[in-house]
What does this fold into?
Amino acid sequence: MKTINEIQDEIIGDFSVFDDWMDKYALLIELGNDLPPLDPKYKTNNNLIEGCQSRVWLQADLKDGKIIYQGESDAVIVKGIVSLLIKTLSGHTPDEILSTDLYFIDKIGLKEHLSPTRSNGLVAMLKQMKLYAMAFKMKGS
It folds into this structure.
């Protein structure tokens, strides 16, 4: 299993191939299309992320001490962002998730190339993922 930072470095590598943001958006959309569809039973109001302009659902489950995230969005670029966050954080322990610094977001220039509402949505998704990690950590201790 790769560390969160190894995964972040891979993502930075994938995005650094492109200079043009249109190409980076295309990569984001491709990543979103590769995201497995979320089981309809998880598309509930409880799993909707507050603060996103588009609809984003996030499900978290604890398996063998590691959090498995699943998610989906009805907007293609946002779905790509969901895919990146899941790829980075899913399969790690609550402690690893809570102590990590997600530097890839700035390194690939994601924040500065998102509209303010999408940027707020990204922050909201990240916050929710960390809240799940905190909740699982509390349950476990």
Notes: Strands lie at 56-63, 66-73.
